[in-house]
Amino acid sequence: MWRDLGRIGLDPGSGGYRRYAWTGADRDCREWFRAQAEARGLTHETDRNGNQWAWLGDPLAGDAVVTGSHLDSVPDGGAFDGPLGVVSSFAALDELRRRGAEFTKPFAITNFGDEEGARFGLACVGSRLAAGQLTVEGAHRLRDGDGVSLPQAMEAAGHDPDALGPDPERLARIGAFVELHVEQGRALDLSGDPVGVASAIWPHGRWRFDFRGEANHAGTTRLADRRDPMPTYAETVLAARREAELAGGLATFGKVAVEPNGVNAIPSLVRGWLDSRAADQATLDTVVAGVERAAREHAERAGIDLTVVRESFTPVVEFQHALRDELCRLLGRSGPGPSGRAVPVLGTGAGHDAGILSASVPTAMLFVRNPTGISHSPAEHAAEDDCAAGVRALADVLEGLACS
Ligand code: HGY
Ligand code: MN
Ligand code: MN
Ligand code: MN
């Protein structure tokens, strides 16, 4: 199961995955998901927003227990971020069948579409649309780097963009959603546990900084005559690191677009995206305000026009305590930790579909140890034993929530 999926969208040059929404690699992942579902006698469906569901029992009965994650990736992403959750869901179902567990509630495994937002710039598009946190107009406005709109890309992939919209009835029929995910950090490595339960997702967002100057010839324009936005952008990136260190948050300028992007042309526009996150809202606000203030000061001094647009924002998600505590009780009983200790509870700065859904559905997350903490990179890794511990833990949780 893991090997078949592992071949999809793998870039041999970087060793990373390039599985972007509504591309060929996405199609192959969706095909893999459907085949896994049907091989287990599950009923496969793709919902109005392009999320895949594999059902056991009646999807309309209500109080369903659902697990799953996403299969798309960031550019040159790792093999585990997303796929570990989906593969572990199928493996946990196999484990429950080996145990002879009887499902007393409808059960489903999901693949949420476009979680990383790598192509259209907004994370969790499939789950945001379903939860009504992204309007249809907002979705139709999304464009990729080649100017292809989300509706055009969906249509080309055979999915009707006019079907997009909130799906409250579907979400109302879910009693609990549990997402297993590779940890994107080292808390479990440091605590010595293979599996942990999520307490919260930090508030985080994406801001676009447009630095506009004046295109000109790199070889004939005196330095004093330039309105070059690149130095202003560079000063802002350095300021972001300082502001984050001072405030105790995180700030990353990981993506930049330059126009006209010629070696011998002074740019007319440098567009940089800030990803900022922090354990609490006040710290996040301090970091972002500090970066914007510094950017405006540098732009003012250089005669550069600056516009800052908040492109997306996810407030803090405190996972529902009752479900979180139920997971801890269920896992504490089997004690996947070294000495059967209670399972650790930890926060994360990474966004997830579970975070989006938590506004509409009782959600919880399980994390599997990542020995280096590296993620969003081909170097992302989780040990086989830890992945197996994650499957057993997920099976324990699903058995406690959905089986007699
Ligand atoms: O950006 C994130 O935190 C998530 O991996 N989409
Ligand atoms: Mn990710
Ligand atoms: Mn993920
Ligand atoms: Mn995520």
UniProtKB/TrEMBL annotation:
Keywords: Hydrolase
Presence of keyword Coiled coil: no
The UniProt record lists the keyword Hydrolase: yes
InterPro entries: Amidase_Cbmase, Bact_exopeptidase_dim_dom, Peptidase_M20
Record family assignment: Belongs to the peptidase M20 family.
Name assigned to this protein: Allantoate amidohydrolase
Organism (species): Streptomyces argenteolus
